[in-house]
Specification:
The complex is a heterodimer of chains A (191) and B (244). With 191 residues, chain A is mainly alpha-helical. In chain A, α2 crosses α4 and α7 crosses α10. The termini of chain A are far apart. Chain B has 244 residues and is of the alpha+beta class. Chain B has four domains: 51 residues, no CATH class; 39 residues; 42 residues, no CATH class; 48 residues. Chain B is 62% helix and 7% strand. In chain B, α1 crosses α3 and α9 runs antiparallel to α10. Classes of the chains: A mainly alpha (191), B alpha+beta (244). At the A-B interface, α2, α3, α7, α8 and α10 of A face α1, α3 and α4 of B. The structure holds zinc ion. The site of zinc ion has 6 residues of chain B, from α1 and α3.
């Protein structure tokens, strides 16, 4: 918690400079937060190519809107909220929605290091099973798992990002965990 | 399962691990094996998820790509600011040309002119007016009545070039008689070759095609060159249609 507020305080001068049109300051913010945004977007939509495009879209929108950033949340929370909105816009296209909701982007998820040794292949199978289960969840449930379980956002921050209440975040997250548990146990039985 | 266990497993299992949960939740978990087991299972699953979803490789998008996109966005923003000005100019020009095409000839017809030049000259008397290349014979009686036949739609500019007046003794009348619109307009109103002053089909077609161009421009597809070309054409047409 203390670390988060320290991070927010350290970023204030950069944000002020970016508000004044300083693109170099904004580039520092980009370098600091691009990985979090990329991970969130990639795990939300599943396609690496689209994710790279959405990262660009997110930071372009952030640059345009930075004058309206009031510093009530951390910059990371604010920019992830923009990314969530960009993901929703992206998935709103009917064709993409019907295609991506069912398709698991396995080819994006395999890391070269996972395939190096035989044991890693087993680990990779588990990993694929979890990713498959994650993509079977509704978008907001999936995003909550990414935000809260993986990226360490608090339920209040996740609520800000997804535009709902903290209580709703907690309920949905528990539901998402329950669904994941069921999906993974089904997957175990199949295997 | 007790109600409190159900509550905790349903609503507090995630925050129970992080220490964000209320004191009564922590107290219960410390004494309830079922809830503790649930929380532990939850923690293990979360570990797997974190491991599965962690990215080994960083974001591959370079800052240059973002900077280029921001620059492109700013350029297109500047264009959208300028576009309404171009659109307003195009609408004004279109309105002007439409007014000229529709009402310009009517205004010319009502232009006050002196008595017919033909009538003022007793000799030589105008016998006929010929329009080339397909000469339309304009027969003019001795005094001031002039009959124009047959009536045909002739572009004004061709009239200006080819109109000639032949007198009854075979000689051509003075140059001011054949010099165009004023002389033709000077004929009695009932007998004038009215269609000459109305917009020709070609002019109407031109106006229509320009209207289409302007509409294309308004729909955001008009390039700057196209816009300039349309304005240039409109200006030319205005100059050629306006009297004098
Ligand atoms: Zn219990």
């Amino acid at each position: 918690m203390l670390e988060k507020s320290r991070e927010a305080a350290a970023e204030l001068p950069l944000i002020d400079a970016a508000r004044g049109g300083d693109l170099a300051a904004f580039s520092v913010l980009y370098e600091r937060h691009k990985d979090v945004v990329f991970q969130f977007v990639l795990r939300s939509i599943g396609r690496r190519e689209d994710a790279e495009d959405l990262v660009q879209e997110t930071f372009c929108r952030a640059w345009t809107a930075i004058g309206r950033f009031r510093g009530e949340a951390r910059f990371r929370t604010w920019v992830t909220k923009i990314a969530a909105s960009a993901c929703a816009d992206h998935l709103r296209t009917a064709a993409q929605r019907s295609r991506l909701a069912r398709e698991v982007p396995l080819e994006d998820e395999v890391m070269a290091s996972d395939l190096a040794v035989p044991d890693a292949q087993q680990a990779n199978a588990t990993r694929q099973a979890i990713i498959r289960a994650l993509h079977a969840l509704p978008l907001q449930h999936r995003q909550l798992v990414i935000l809260c379980d993986v990226q360490g956002f608090t339920s209040r921050e996740a609520a800000t990002i997804l535009g709902c209440s903290a209580v709703s975040v907690r309920v949905r997250l528990c539901r998402a965990h329950e669904q994941l548990r069921q999906l993974l146990s089904t997957d175990d039985e199949v295997q | 399962m007790k109600l409190i266990c159900r509550l905790i497993t349903k609503y507090f299992s995630d925050v129970a691990q992080t220490g964000e949960s209320p004191a009564w939740v922590s107290r219960h978990i410390a004494h309830c094996a079922r809830c503790a087991a649930h929380i532990e299972a939850q923690r293990l699953m979360q570990q797997h998820i974190v491991h599965a979803l962690a990215l080994d490789d960083p974001c591959p998008v370079p800052w240059d790509a973002i900077a280029a996109r921001i620059a492109a966005q700013q350029r297109s923003h500047a264009l959208t600011v300028r576009r309404p000005v171009l659109a307003a100019a195009a609408i004004t020009a279109l309105a002007a040309i439409t007014l000229v095409v529709l009402f310009g000839p009517g205004l010319l017809r009502h232009k006050p002119v002196a008595a017919p030049v033909v009538a003022e000259r007793p000799t030589p008397v105008v016998k006929e007016i010929q329009v080339a290349p397909a000469p339309a014979t304009v027969t003019v009686s001795d005094q001031p009545r002039v009959t124009v036949s047959p009536r045909r739609r002739v572009p004004r500019q061709s009239v200006r070039r080819t109109l000639s007046v032949v007198t009854n003794n075979g000689t051509s009348v003075a140059p001011e008689i054949v010099e165009g619109r004023e002389q033709v307009a000077a004929l009695p109103a009932t007998e004038q070759s009215g269609p000459i002053d109305r917009p020709t089909q070609e002019m109407i077609d031109n106006a229509g095609s320009m209207a289409a161009d302007v509409l294309i421009g308004l729909s955001g597809q008009m390039t700057d060159e196209k816009s300039a070309e349309i304005q240039h054409t409109l200006l030319h047409l205005l100059v050629s249609v306006l009297p004098g």
